[in-house]
Design goal:
Keywords: Membrane, Transmembrane, Transmembrane helix. By secondary structure, the protein is mostly helical. The chain has one domain. It has seven helices and no strands.
């Protein structure tokens, strides 16, 4: 959830006014309205995939004969690394976690740049 939030409320929000100025407000609003169904569809697909992978992880912990799982999964799949670990293997999940959260950590540097520029303009302009 943290990764999705940082992507959605990321630097795109900080640059929205500049993009809207270059495209024009009419085209910007039209693109927002037209692309919303695609965004909603992708969100629904992501939620369904997470639910299916949680079910698959519970089924794998069931008895070797394939009997239904008597207890629910110990913990829900809460990150992309956990989803990858449930789908493939634990080392793959750890690798995906390192890549995803490393990318997010590096992406936060853009906020520091904007903060620095804002403080510079506030105090030294």
């Amino acid at each position: 959830a943290w990764l999705m939030l940082s992507d959605i409320v990321g630097t795109s929000v900080l640059t929205f006014s500049g993009v809207a100025q270059s495209l024009g407000w009419g085209l910007t609003v039209a693109l927002l309205i037209c692309l919303f169904p695609l965004s909603l569809y992708v969100s629904v697909c992501m939620a369904r995939t997470r639910r299916l992978l949680a079910w698959e992880a519970a089924a794998r912990r069931a008895s070797p004969a394939g009997a239904p799982c008597a207890t629910p999964p110990r913990a829900p799949l809460g990150s992309m690394g956990e989803v990858a670990g449930a789908a493939w293997a634990a080392p793959v999940g750890r690798g995906v976690g390192v890549v995803v959260y490393g990318y997010t950590w590096l992406g936060q540097s853009s906020y520091l740049l904007v903060l620095g520029l804002s403080l510079q303009q506030a105090f030294f302009s």
